[in-house]
Queue: 3 jobs
Job 1
Amino acid sequence: MQSTHLSPSTLLYEGKAKQLFLTNDPQVLWVHYKDDATAFNGQKFDRLLGKGVLNNLISAQIFNDLADFGIPSHFINRVSDTEQLVSRVEIIPLEVVVRNVVAGSLAKRIGWAEGRRLQEPIVEFYYKNDDLGDPLLTENHIELLELATTHEITDLREQALKINDFLTKRFDKVDLQLIDFKLEFGRQSNGSLILADEISPDTCRLWDRKTNEKMDKDRFRRNLGGLVEAYQEVWNRLDKGKDA
Ligand code: ADP
Ligand code: MG
């Protein structure tokens, strides 16, 4: 953790898992990771003591690892157990999903069994819009809604696949299979697109390599229990495997 001359001021936005505060630097936001968990567009809710601390740790570690690998993100540094500083960006309202193994909504959409490995990773785009229930979008829809240009869609896809290559190996080294995950990107003042939001077991599906045990937010969605214990185990493994 680093000391900072910055401090949080006005609450800018409160989402389902995090709060964003303005700071004395207009380019920098103060993010607080909450213990709240929601699923099915907010219909299911719980407070899971310790989740915020773990997601803050895990997200910070992954953003640091990605930076070392040459992939920049909005992440600046962790400032407390549950808080981190990030660069303020204009979030593109798209959830960029990368899938390596069939799970969740893809199993339902195409009728393949959960757990079936895809020959190549696939990228999907969902509209980040709670009122519409975050629908799947085609590239034509994205252009129609003017959420991103053709060129930007290519950039998002390329960045997402590069992140997938890195994360798949990073998790594999600690005996976790990266099944799928969701990314958000933001537009910087110079127009370029940069990785933002969070990368944690809330936003990734992670299965234990040997047992296929779910170590992610599906423990909450599917009432499996033991979510905080699973996130703690993900953190322990990532922390131990840091310099591997
Ligand atoms: P949500 O309920 O929308 O998923 P979260 O609780 O995950 O919200 O809170 C994070 C919110 O902040 C998200 O809407 C996300 O798009 C936005 N966000 C993440 N990183 C940044 C950033 N660097 N600048 C501005 N907004 C951000
Ligand atoms: Mg979110």
Job 2
Amino acid sequence: MVKKAVIPAAGFGTRMLPASKTVPKEMLTLVDRPAVSYVVEEAIASGIEDILIITSRGKAAMEEYFVPHFELEAKLAASKKFDELKKLKELTELGNIHFIYQKEQKGLGHAIRCAKAFTGDDPFAVILADDIVYNEGAPATRQLIDAYEKLHGVILGVQYIDDKNISKYGVIKPETIGDGLFRVTDMAEKPKVEDKMSNFAALGHYILTPEIYDAIDETTPGVGGEIQLTDAIRKLIAKGLVYAVDFEGKRYDAGNRLGYMKASVEFALRNEEIGEDFKAYLKELAQGL
Ligand code: UTP
């Protein structure tokens, strides 16, 4: 059973500068909740009970977001603002959330290595803190956990990406073994379009097994001097341990300006409170574009 999740959120977020100089990019809001909140909610809705967020200096707001604020709660109760109070309380009931510092930003592989004591001998989910998936059915991580329960290997969450964008991602060489299920026979990080092994890219959602730690330890720094998770996963592919699932859901990369704006607009349209009014506003605005 996969009951633990690791959320790497220690990166500098240079694509969201200058905001990310002082506001962690994971704390930039989509409507009224920061990006990391959506990711934690996805984990909990997938059956995860314990979450470790990998953080770094200057991101204390992320830690405070998940702990109770008793003074504010008392004030809201006294002024009968029960809706707001409910929203605050729901946040602190999102499972057990732990934090650990990645002392130097040496890449995603290095960030995940910081979770070794937390995950121990257990398989665990990884969700990147700005990789948000909206799905009316099972959450993306749940779909990966279901695949893990059948296959008991590393599971990569993948989706089809067009040629224009494929070079931004870790791309797999898939061998179909079921409906939307693949055995992964190779993988490359950010390949040129002419070298791509397929159009299926890993999109920020993984189930990893403890074997990943030895693979990370054996991985030398790659592109940008960083320890790349893809390089470590390739070592496990060589041992036949890696699968992929083409998960359902609309995925947003909230870590770059355009992706963040698309996510903001679409989550606002889905919002119960402002959705209808926002849609009317957008339609009116679009007429003048
Ligand atoms: P990104 O590639 O998005 O890097 O990392 P970044 O630093 O966050 O953002 P840019 O590219 O500079 O704009 C993917 C995920 O891995 C985490 C990030 O926080 C993000 O969730 N990460 C990356 C770490 O936790 N530590 C690292 O050393 C690098």
Job 3
Amino acid sequence: MNIILLGAPFSGKGTLARNMVNEYNLVQISTGDLFRENIKNQTEIGLEAKSYIDKGNLVPDDVTIKMLSDRIAQDDCQNGFILDGFPRSIEQAVALSKIANIDIVILLDVPYSTIEQRVEGRRVCTGCGEIYNTMTYSKTECEKCGSALYQRDDDKLETVRHRLEVYDQITAPLIDFYADILLKVQGADSPLDTFEQVKTLIESRKN
Ligand code: AMP
């Protein structure tokens, strides 16, 4: 089963993807994580991507599509994957259709007012990438691996507002593009609640 998670920044795609990986035995592919890994390792891709990411803009398609195709071609993806953060434009979706079949697209629907509330509190673990929110977790170290938590540069409110505009203009048209295989879930409540909705929808689709 190959799945795309679609939704605005902070809609909870990363958390949902992690839950789904365990449940459905899928590989999670996050283009955002791949870029951050490249930035950390100071690769050519990382150096090119950083200036776009810091401003809240999309990294150009040629770089992104190549990075994603290389990842999908790896052995561990052959049993199914879940894409978190790709495609983010019609051009990327068209490129993806040439290299993989997509079974389901899950749209995480979260009001922008809720997204803005989430922004200030989000913290990410420097070690394992686990995501926290200061509203529900007050420690500064990761519960799982003990590494320090940090706020991503592109998680500042100003940048996020710009990212939401980019989402509206460039990514949201994918909702129509994938209308035939789209499942919509409400992502404003708890991650567990969102995950339960997804499981129910996927189950009902099988029947
Ligand atoms: P994310 O972690 O998915 O929120 O992605 C962080 C940033 O990485 C985005 O704001 C973009 O700058 C860049 N990025 C991630 N995925 C893509 C993509 N599919 N196309 C272009 N840029 C991307």
